[in-house]
């Protein structure tokens, strides 16, 4: 079943415009969701917004957004005021400039979305823009309102469509230098690097989505299934903590033992 688009609008590059549809590339809809339950009655516990001083509930129509500029002093914003701030980019992805795809560090990437032409008429113009970016290995920079905030976005070709990445704001990415400069300046020994390279090669695998499976989620599903069937559940054994002899690590010895272990595992296979 085709994924239903959550956003529809226009992709624009100079005088070339086409209708497009977009949907998030990732989802958490399959994740387990828990409710708070009153243990005594079995009823759900609901949360309500209350006035911090009076303790009385506040109706939805009486709630507004506020920016704190001082103690108990707020600048208030209505929802329509926030919507109007970036109204022009609400339904149009206007590509302002292009950058080499590999020039943006991965930490600037935020949330991915799939972009595709919204109808047959738009397919040709969409394909021309996509293939030109693919050939030049560039990504398009634009601005777009998503989730009630304006974002800088990066468009990159992907298969027969594009991926629209929302980019993190400049003040969200910290400068790494103050942290990385704490590392030791001493270069590792060449023999250690050689052994580490062999260890990496021994563990090299092709990418498989199962590598990032969620074992906690799987276990919770098992527990729910067992309880639904009214069967007894055995308590999972707690993994034994590895023995720690001291706080000093001999990197060469650890590498030798790791490589020996990998060779034994490979020979068994």
UniProtKB/TrEMBL annotation:
Origin superkingdom: Bacteria
Biased composition (Basic and acidic residues): 238-248
GO-annotated biological processes: DNA recombination; double-strand break repair via nonhomologous end joining
GO terms assigned for molecular function: double-stranded DNA binding
Region described as Disordered: spans on this chain: 223-248
Subunit text: Homodimer. Interacts with LigD.
Name assigned to this protein: Non-homologous end joining protein Ku
Organism in which the protein naturally occurs: Rhizobium rosettiformans
Organism ancestry: Bacteria, Pseudomonadati, Pseudomonadota, Alphaproteobacteria, Hyphomicrobiales
């Amino acid at each position: 079943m085709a994924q239903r688009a959550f956003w529809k609008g226009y992709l624009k590059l100079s005088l070339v415009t086409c209708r497009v549809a977009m949907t998030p590339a990732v989802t958490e809809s399959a994740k387990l969701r828990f409710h708070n339950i009153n243990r005594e009655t079995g009823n759900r516990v609901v949360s309500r917004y209350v006035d911090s001083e009076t303790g009385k509930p506040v109706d939805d129509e009486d709630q507004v957004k506020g920016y704190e500029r001082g103690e108990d002093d707020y600048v208030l914003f209505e929802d329509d005021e926030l919507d109007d701030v970036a109204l022009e980019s609400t339904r149009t992805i206007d590509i302002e400039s292009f950058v080499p795809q590999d020039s943006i560090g991965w930490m600037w990437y935020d949330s991915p979305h799939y972009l595709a032409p919204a109808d047959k008429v738009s397919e040709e113009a969409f394909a021309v823009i996509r293939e030109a970016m693919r050939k030049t290995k560039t990504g398009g920079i634009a601005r777009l309102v998503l989730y009630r905030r304006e974002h800088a976005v990066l468009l990159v070709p992907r298969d027969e469509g594009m991926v629209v990445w929302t980019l993190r704001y400049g003040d969200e990415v910290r400068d790494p230098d103050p942290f990385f400069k704490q590392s030791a300046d001493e270069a590792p020994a060449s023999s250690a690097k050689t052994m580490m390279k062999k260890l990496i090669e021994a563990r090299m695998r092709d990418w498989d989505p199962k590598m990032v499976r969620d074992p906690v989620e799987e276990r919770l599903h098992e527990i729910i299934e067992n309880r639904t069937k009214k069967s007894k559940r055995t308590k999972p054994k707690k993994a034994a903590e590895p023995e720690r002899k001291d706080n000093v690590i001999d990197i060469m010895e650890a590498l030798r033992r790791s490589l020996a272990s990998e060779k034994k595992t490979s020979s068994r296979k």
